[in-house]
Structures are given as structure tokens and as C-alpha cells.
Amino acid sequence: MASPRTLFDKIWQNHLVATQEDGTCLIYIDLHLVHEVTSPQAFEGLRAAGRKLRRPDKTLAVADHNVPTTNRAGGIANEESRIQVETLEKNVKEFGVPYYPVMDIRQGVVHIIGPEQGLTQPGMTVVCGDSHTATHGAFGGLAFGIGTSEVEHVMATQTLIQRPAKNMRVTVNGKPPAGTSAKDFILAIIGKVGTAGGTGHVIEFAGEAIRNLSMEGRMTVCNMAIEAGARAGMVAPDETTYAYLKGRPHAPKGAAWDAALAYWKTLPSDEGATYDKEVVLDASEIIPFVTWGTSPQDALPITGIVPDPASIADEGRRAAVERSIEYMGLTAGQKLTDIKIDTVFVGSCTNGRIEDIRAAAAVAKGRKVAPGVRALIVPGSGLVKEQAEQEGLDKILLDAGFEWREPGCSMCLAMNDDKLRPGERSASTSNRNFEGRQGPGGRTHLVSPAMAAAAAVTGHLADVREFLT
Amino acid sequence: MKKFETFTGVAAPMPSQNIDTDKIIPARFLKTIQRAGLGKSLFNDQRYNDDGSEKEGFILNQPAYRKSEILVVGDNFGCGSSREHAPWALTDYGIRTIIGTDFADIFFNNSFKNGMLLIKLPKEIVDELMDDAQKGANARLTVDLEAQEITRPNGDKVKFDVDPFRKHCLLNGLDDIGLTMEKRSDIDTFEGKDGNARPWAPSIAAE
Predict the structure, then answer these.
(1) Cross-chain Cβ contact B109/A415 below 8 Å
(2) Number of folded domains in chain B?
(3) d(CA B27, CA A21)
(4) Chain B neighbours among A 104-123 (CB < 8 Å)?
(5) Does residue B203 lie within any of the structural domains?
(6) CATH of the domain at B173
(7) Is B114 in the A-facing interface, judged by CB distances under 8 Å?
(8) Predicted structure pTM score
(9) Assigned domain for B206 exists
């Protein structure tokens, strides 16, 4: 009998086109998502070499990073941003690539719309010129970010030259306490393994607490696998996955659904499969988390304090902590709940789905955004926005003083009008708290949507458990 | 791609851990639709003041390091985004080799695809090379990919490992796409077989 295989092993082997003597593999790509920032040079490369895009029918393009989240009909004011989006529009036309235009209701953050349209399915290989492609692994596929040279390679050949990754399993056992969400799981995991803990590995997230997450929650967890250094995160497909997929525009239908389902059920890791690295957490011990510093691994429970560099033995780590504290304008020993914020951002490929907006609205309901705080809610897609409006969430949030925006990457990365000014401090549901990530000199604290709403109404980082009724 | 040839160059020390791609090239410089020209924005927020003048303290602004071709870096260099603008900015500036204990996966991959050699070495050796780099323009390192060897200013040689396929591509300046195009029949065969095995796989129509 064949030796037990992991979910990753199975997907890898099912996509092998060729293997070189030295172990380098050519693997087939089922879905290539394209956005305006990392594709222009790839299209240009194809054009220069006189190459075609091999499988436009396995490619989908959308503009998300540069698009404005207000007054969309007015177009893009910033010239460079406008040129980048116009270049994408010209390229998709020339190469025959399916595209959701900015005014289409299906437009949104690239990692939100793939799953929403049923394009992301178990067992698939999904790539995009964007490190948060890991999100799609929530469906039990192999999904990872690539650079522009690789984008061009996929466009020309529908394959990638890769070496197999190592297997890592992160198991979250038990049940979380009230107030803890998927975002807190992944921040706790990154806090534990560090930002290089998953380098060279694909992380399979497993355990009762992961199984009990919705697809939205699983996407949040997989999304930030890259912040733990892993190129891909994945969750084995199960009934939750199938229920989410069924009936979506690109999901199989009728007899094809039955055939697909039978195949998907063969994918979960075999009993006895081994992993190169194992990490185990207990969900019951994970309370809401925040980051205090400038690396996602600088994550602590909200009840914690800013660390004291003097207590750190490792010289390199001590220097990093000192630098982070200085950049963030904090003091060692300061209580995290004493950190005042002036900006709140709920959105991004990490937390821009319907469940995230519901979580923010649940805390905001009947409360008011604290004076002096600017609070943005940016749905991840036109369809998320529409659904939230049907549920009346926009009204709750607007009544509380939040701004209700159009879909896009928004304040996650300061490529559009939404950014922090120097010295401003945000509670943000995005994925990176790097120096300058949300704007030069901006300071970012990563949190869950419920924690972001709690920060908005108090004006400081706050423990959302105090808002649970 | 240009062939990677043996060279001797100035190495700049950048010992900070987790130097991320947003530090290497902040997102606001990603609005270009070209590859060239990003070198001037490399490490922008560390390198320049708000008025555009240079920050004196930053390593690449110091006279001894302005023409650096090698970086000796802290752990997990290149973490964060998949932006190939990071290696584009580095190569446009003139960086040809980066030496560290480990690198983020996507950045590592992207760098080789742009003719840059990234070398992973144990911490003790990186520390020694970091000390060499601290000595400024007089302490130059020689990088010989063919022999997989770095020559230190004192003449000592340090051996390094490199993936044979990446080495082959770098030494010969090979374009991955051209190589894969030669396997077109393998791809055709796979698509035929896979189409039968997974007929439900999504297919998107252009509108």
C-alpha cells in the first residue's frame, strides 16, 4: 500500500506535469488571478516575446489595490494609479482575459472574489502575483503568491517551476472563549512560531477549533500563513466547504457536482501522514490578540503590556524590539489597552468578508465612534457590500459614525487615497503592521473586526470581551 | 537575463532582522508599469528625509557603501509581499548578491529570476562576513558562483550551497519561460488527461 499522504502531497502529485532529474518540478496551475499592480510587466514580457496567454479561461483579472473607495464614478484622481488600472484594462482586452470592471458588482479584493464566485475549489492550484493568495487554501487547495516573472510564466505556460514544500501542521484544539475569532487564532499562531516559522513549508491548519470555523474564518487564518513565513496555508475540505461552494456561479452543477464531491472527499490527509514540523495550540487559551510592534509576530493578548527590550537576551531580537517601540511611539511596560488610536480600518483580504462586517456591526450597534477617530468599513467586494446592506449593517455602522466605503484594498497598503498620515495610529483588520505599510510614518495595530470596532468606540485598543452582551 | 559572472564588490552590512519588502520598496512605488528605474526608491523611507534629502546615517548613503554590490543581511530578509519590485529595485541599484542566514521564500525565488544570487550560510559565518562588511569600501568580497565560493578580504574562502537548477540558469542567463516552452507537449498531455479526470474544473468566459 502507498504510504499515507498529506493534503499537500496529494494536490502536488495531481498537478505534476514533469519532474527534472534534480527534483525541480513543473506543476500545473488551475486558476491564475491577476491584478493591476504585479501584472503590467508580465503582459509586457509576453508582448515583447510574441507569446500568447495560454489559458485565458483559467485566468481572472480585477483591479483592487489602486481603486478609490469613494466617489467611484468620478474615476481615479491619482495619475499613476489611473494608468496602472487603464493598463490592466488594455492588457485584458488584448490577451482575452476575463475581467470584472471597477463598476461591476462582482469587483472587489482579488482574494475575496475568487471564493465568492465559486472559482476557488478544493484540490486546485491557485496563484496570483500577491502573497495573500494563501487565502484560497481555506478550500483545501494549494494557493500561493508569486512574483511577476512567475506571473508571466503562468500566463505563457499555465505552469510553474517549483520544488515541493515541506509539510507543517498547526493544530488548534478545543473551543475558543467568547470574543475570540479566527484573526486571534492566526495572530496567536504567528506570535508563537514567528514570521519565519513556516519558511519553506506549507501549513495545514487542523484541529477542532479550525474545523468549527466558517469558510470566512478559515480564509482569515490561511490568508496570514504568509505572515508566518509559509507560502501557503490550507484547511482540508469538509461539509462546511461544500456547503459554502454549492450554488455559487462557478461551482460545478448536477452530475458534475457529484463527481467533484467524490474527488474532493479523497483529498484530506491520510491517517498516519507525517509532517516535517508540528505546532499545537489550545483554543481555550486564546483570548483576543493585538500586535504592538512592526512585525506580525509582535502579537500579544489584549491584556498584555508592551515588552521591555532589557529583558530580551538575543541581541538581534532586542534591537528589533527597541526599534519597533521607537517607531510605534510606545513605552516598555505600557498596558496595551492604554494605547490610543485615531484611525480604524475594517476590510482587506484578511477581514473584508460578510462575517467580518457583521462582527464589527455587532459591537458598533447602539454605540458611537469616539470623538476624533476616523473609522472606515471597506467591504471586500461589491457583493459583500450588497449583502451587508440587505442585512442593514451599513445603517448600524453609519449611525455609529463609521464610514461605509466601496470595495478595494483601501488602507491595507497605502496605494490609494486611504492611508495613515505620519504619526497616525490605527487599529486595523489587515495583515501587515510593517513600518509605513498604511502610509509613511503610520502606526498599525493588527486586530480582529470585533476588536477594531471596540477600538473605534473607545478611542483606544480595547478588550472586546467587555462589549459582549 | 544577464549571465552571472564572478565579481568582487563592496558589501554593505544590514544586520536588522525581518527587513520586509515594504522597507525594501514601499507600496506607493509599485504604481509603475515598468521594471526599470526603481533603484532610486530602494529603501526609500530609511534612505531619504521627507524633503528628499539623504539621511546621513543610512548605510547606503555613506561614502564607503554608495557603490555596494553585495548586502550582508539579518535573518528573514525579504519577508512580506510577493512584489518583484523588491528585487527589481535592488538590481537596479546595483546589488548582485545578498548573503544571510535565511530569506523569505517568494523573495528568494523572485531574486534568482532577476539574475541575483542569494546565499544562505550558517549564522557564525554570516556574522564573520558582517564584520568584513563593517570595514567599508576596503573590505571587498569576491563571489564565484561556478566554484560556489566567497573570498573574504583576508583571503579565506567560504563555500556555499546553491540549487543546481538555479545555478545553471544564473550562470547561463537562462529564461525560465523559454525552458518550459520546450516542454509544451508535456503540458498538452497533462491538460488532456486532467480534463478527463476533473471535467468540472472552472472555466471562465471573457465578457
Answers:
(1) no
(2) 1
(3) 39
(4) 118-119, 121, 123
(5) no
(6) 3.20.19.10
(7) yes
(8) 0.97
(9) no
- Other CB atoms within 10 Å distance of the CB of residue A408: 31
B167-176 average pLDDT score: 94
The verdict on residue B70 lying in a domain is: yes
What's the rounded Cα separation, in Å, for the pair B23 and B144? 29
Question: How many other CB atoms sit within 10 Å of the CB of residue A24?
Answer: 16
Please say if the pLDDT value at position B207 is more than 80: no
- Residues A420 and A426: their CA atoms lie apart, in Å, by 8
Q: Is B183 in Cβ contact with A434 (below 8 Å)? A: no
Average pLDDT over residues A308-316: 95
Cβ neighbourhood burial of B148 (10 Å; 0-12, 13-18, 19+): middle
pLDDT tens digits, residue range B9-31?
999 999 999 999 999 999 999 99
CA distance A400 to chain B (A): 32
Distance, in Å, from the CA atom of A206 to the CA atom of A234, rounded to the nearest integer, reads 9
Q: Is A272 helix (H, G, I), strand (E, B) or coil?
A: coil
Give the pLDDT of residue A170. Answer: 98
- Shortest distance between the Cα of A469 and any Cα of chain B, in A, equals 37
Q: Evaluate whether A69 touches A416 at the Cβ level (below 8 Å).
A: yes
CB contacts, 8 Å: A145 with chain B: 81-82, 106
Q: For residues A359 and A353, is the Cβ–Cβ distance under 8 A?
A: no
Contact yes or no for B23 and A161 at CB 8 A: no
Q: Are A437 and A131 in contact (CB under 8 A)?
A: no
pLDDT in tens, B79-99: 999 999 999 999 999 999 999
What is the nearest CA distance from B154 to chain A, expressed in angstroms? 26
The residue segments making up the domain with residue B156 are: 7-197
Say what the pLDDT of residue B204 is. Answer: 96
Cell 493585538 maps to which residue? Answer: A290
A444 contacts A438 by C-beta, under 8 angstroms: yes
The pLDDT of B171-200, averaged and rounded, is 95
Residue B155 forms part of a structural domain: yes
Model confidence pLDDT, tens digit, residues A19-55: 988 889 999 999 999 999 999 999 999 999 999 999 9
Tell me, rounded to whole angstroms, the distance of Cα B60 from its chain centroid: 17
**Residues of chain A with pLDDT > 70: what percent?**
100
**A113 three-class SS:** helix
Sign for the pseudo-dihedral over CA of B188, B192, B195, B198? negative
